[in-house]
Amino acid sequence: MNPPFHLAKKEDLKHIGIGQVDDSAIKARTLKLMDEFRKFSRSFSAMLETCTRCGTCANACHSYLGTDDFNNIPAARAGYLRAIFTRYFTWYGRLFRRFSGAREFDDDTLCSLVSYFYQCNACRRCALYCPFGIDTAEIVLAGRNILTSLGLAPSFIVSIARNEILTGNNTGILKPAIIDSCSFLEEELRGETGLDIKIPVDKPDSEILYLPSSSELFTNVDTLMGAAKVFHHLGVDWTLSSVMLEAANYGLHFDLEILKKQNRRMRVAAAAVGARKVIQGECGHGWRVARMYSEGADGPVNFQLEHVLDFVAARLQRLSLSRLPIRATLHDSCNYGRGTGLLDSPRLLVRACVEEFVEMTPNRERNFCCGGGSGLLMDEMKDLRMQLGKMKAGQIKDLQPLDYVAAPCASCKAQLPLVLKHYGMGDTACGGVMDLLGRALVMDNERRIEGNATGNHVK
Ligand code: SF4
Ligand code: SF4
User: Fold this and answer.
1) Cβ pair 244, 266 in contact under 8 A
2) pLDDT surpassing 80 at residue 86
3) What residue owns the CA closest to ligand 1's atom 7?
């Protein structure tokens, strides 16, 4: 097996409760898991049985368009699982093997599944264009879950999931280091604004628990500092949590049980600080998990759940902004645009912060993926990821000269600067929407104190 990434070792898998399966048992285990999936989800079976091989999805997929590899056409990618499904779970596959597209389960099929299911960003763009609405991302994620159960998962994803489970954050840092980082950022904010802007950790009786994206304490600090400034200005009573430091949930990319386990942590973290509202930061997949899976997996939550961009957009009138003299665009994260419908608030906010806002073509839910989502940010996949970013690079090139790409998702923020540099647009900066707000905000200390004095807390 030679996938474009390192597979996790047995002992790493053990840390997150996943065993490995003997070679002799792989086929039986795969078929058993497929059987469970088809019984659990009628849509899974329907999507595997429906494809007419019309080919419409090919031009919708940045992975195929960027790599020129026919195996990356959505129908071909899903076709590996579809062929096994047809062979073992349909009457026509059993009777007419040659003409039905059925395929025996063998080592070649297994290698293709591992390799091509991790060249899909699970962006769901193909589903928008398929005449039957076949969502190849759903097939891919089901397939990745099956592969994980066989002990086949990328080392990078497993190590992040392990850190999330053990410490509540992807880098595995503990509370003293979290507090140190926040103190450092508070110092920076004080130096910049002259104000005592706090980034609290585990503050009891906080109205709001804020779950930033995974990189905001280290690499994308401007996003967290932007949020801290805006919260300060609005008089928000908020805190971070050392129980769950960030919104990320890598379980989405490869294992539903880990997704659920990590998602339950949000409830524990909110209860620990007494929060009545949880606000998620600029993390595309984290927001999709929280919004779309939390209540389905574990029942109603006893707090309000909101994305920071919706929260701030609803209070935009209370912010005094000085437009930045830049030309900027917005990259719609797939997990926002096609995952949760978060499309209007980011635009409203970027428009309010800059002198010139321009849209990519296409945009909103038809926007192309940047190529970094769904756990593919592995170093060893960098060259491949640059190919996956080719369509996005073309969209941005059409807007040049351009100063800034607002990309309110940690994975997009990691991928896009590399794509911009690779395709000769290194002068165009990339960052979050909260970063822009932090820079455009005209701080008004007196107004905040008045707000607090009258108990005017933000609901
Ligand atoms: S567009 Fe839909 S039906 Fe056509 S090949 Fe793709 S997945 Fe199959
Ligand atoms: S989900 Fe996205 S990357 Fe995956 S096959 Fe569909 S269009 Fe391609």
Assistant:
1) yes
2) yes
3) 75
